[in-house]
């Protein structure tokens, strides 16, 4: 591991040691400065070294109480400047405290204390050396105090920007996760609708054909054999559609060759033939000029017809159902009616089928209405857009 990284981690766990570190070079430099003469080295002036050490002592808690430490160190430094004008030095501990206050405190407090300290340092130096306030040495000390505050604010601004960037990144990641969960939930609902449609449709046909075969097994074995053949075909079709639908949960990509073809409106005749074999005659008619429609519209229309016929076969006492596709300039109207008895409960099931039809239509911007007819039977009407708006897709 990098030595510098280990050192930084150790300092992060020992705040007091980290805060006191700047005092070490300040005391060494101040002590050495008092030993420098005009032509040679001499014994340091220990009194000034002790004052410097005392002014650095509050730095041990500078990160905990930045404002009191700044005031104490500046007061000690100014006192030393006034008592020992011959030293001609800058209060280093006060500059470190100003920097710390600018990093940890508010901007207003940092600049207020920084400007007052700069003026005070300049005034004390000018007064103790009988110099002008705008002299070079006095202005140098003013600049040092302002520079310490400005450097601290720059570090604080950089830290704030980094914190905001991390927060935005975390928020973006959280938003992406929520969006992913929402899409997964929507996909689960869509697959559940498909599974409901497939299972309900084919199991209904299989059940009806099994009843026919059971009834005709002794009286008419040939027709019973034909009913069993229809059961076999519908069972195979149900398994194929279930495999294609559940397979979507296992696929990594959307390669078109790995999925079964999506049902289309052209397959309604095949759908009607399956119901006819189970005892429900279905007529399919088309009016208007057929126009190209979005794949989602075509699939939705097919599933609505499939679910409506399945409900008719399961719950209505009907022998005939009519499916009408009316092509308009911008919409496709799908109407499914049956000839059930007046007042017969045409939708005595759980209601999941009608809910699924409405959800499918709403998902592409369409509507579905359903209810009994006065003359008898049940009717489902769906109005679906031929093309989908960009915001809906």
UniProtKB/TrEMBL annotation:
The UniProt record lists the keyword Disulfide bond: no
EC primary class: transferase
Keyword terms, alphabetized: ATP-binding, Coiled coil, Kinase, Nucleotide-binding, Phosphoprotein, Transferase, Two-component regulatory system
Catalytic activity, EC: 2.7.13.3
Residues in coiled coil: 155-182
Domain Histidine kinase/HSP90-like ATPase as annotated: residue spans: 296-388
Reactions accelerated catalytically: ATP + protein L-histidine = ADP + protein N-phospho-L-histidine
SMART domains associated with the record: HATPase_c (SM00387)
InterPro entries linked: DUF7134 (IPR055558), HATPase_C_sf (IPR036890), HATPase_dom (IPR003594), Sensor_HK_TwoCompSys (IPR050482), Sig_transdc_His_kin_sub3_dim/P (IPR011712)
Entry annotated with the keyword Nucleotide-binding: yes
GO molecular function: kinase activity
The protein, known as: histidine kinase
């Amino acid at each position: 591991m990098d030595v510098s990284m280990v050192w930084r981690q150790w300092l992060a766990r020992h705040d007091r040691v980290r805060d006191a570190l700047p005092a070490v070079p300040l005391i060494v430099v101040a002590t050495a400065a008092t030993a420098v003469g005009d032509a040679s080295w001499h014994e340091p002036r220990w009194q000034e070294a002790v004052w410097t050490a005392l002014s650095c002592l509050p730095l041990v808690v500078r990160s905990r109480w930045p404002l009191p430490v700044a005031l104490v160190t500046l007061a000690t430094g100014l006192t030393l400047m006034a008592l020992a004008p011959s030293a001609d030095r800058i209060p280093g501990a006060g500059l470190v405290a100003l920097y710390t206050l600018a990093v940890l405190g508010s901007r207003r407090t940092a600049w207020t204390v920084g400007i007052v300290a700069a003026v005070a340092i300049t005034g004390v130096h000018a007064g103790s050396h009988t110099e002008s306030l705008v002299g070079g040495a006095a202005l140098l000390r003013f600049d040092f105090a302002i520079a310490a505050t400005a450097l601290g604010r720059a570090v604080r601004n950089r830290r704030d920007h980094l914190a905001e960037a991390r927060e935005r990144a975390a928020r973006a990641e959280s938003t992406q996760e929520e969006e992913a969960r929402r899409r997964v939930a929507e996909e689960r609902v869509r697959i559940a609708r498909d599974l409901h449609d497939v299972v309900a449709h084919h199991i209904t046909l299989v059940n009806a054909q099994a009843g026919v075969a059971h009834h005709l097994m002794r009286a008419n074995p040939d027709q019973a054999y034909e009913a069993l053949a229809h059961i076999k075909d519908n069972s195979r079709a149900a398994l194929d559609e279930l495999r294609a639908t559940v397979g979507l949960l296992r696929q990594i990509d959307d390669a078109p060759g790995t999925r079964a073809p999506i049902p289309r409106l052209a397959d309604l005749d095949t759908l009607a033939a399956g119901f006819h074999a189970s005892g429900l005659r279905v007529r399919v008619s088309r009016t208007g000029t057929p126009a190209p429609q979005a794949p989602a519209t075509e699939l939705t229309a097919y599933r609505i017809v499939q679910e409506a016929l399945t409900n008719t076969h399961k719950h209505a006492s009907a022998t005939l159902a009519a499916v009408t596709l009316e092509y308009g300039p911008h919409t496709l109207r799908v109407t499914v009616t049956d000839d059930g008895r007046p007042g017969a409960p045409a939708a005595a099931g759980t209601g999941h089928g009608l809910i699924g039809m409405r959800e499918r239509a709403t998902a592409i911007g369409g509507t579905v209405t359903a209810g009994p007819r006065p003359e008898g039977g049940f009717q489902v009407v769906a109005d679906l857009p031929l093309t989908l708006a960009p915001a809906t897709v």
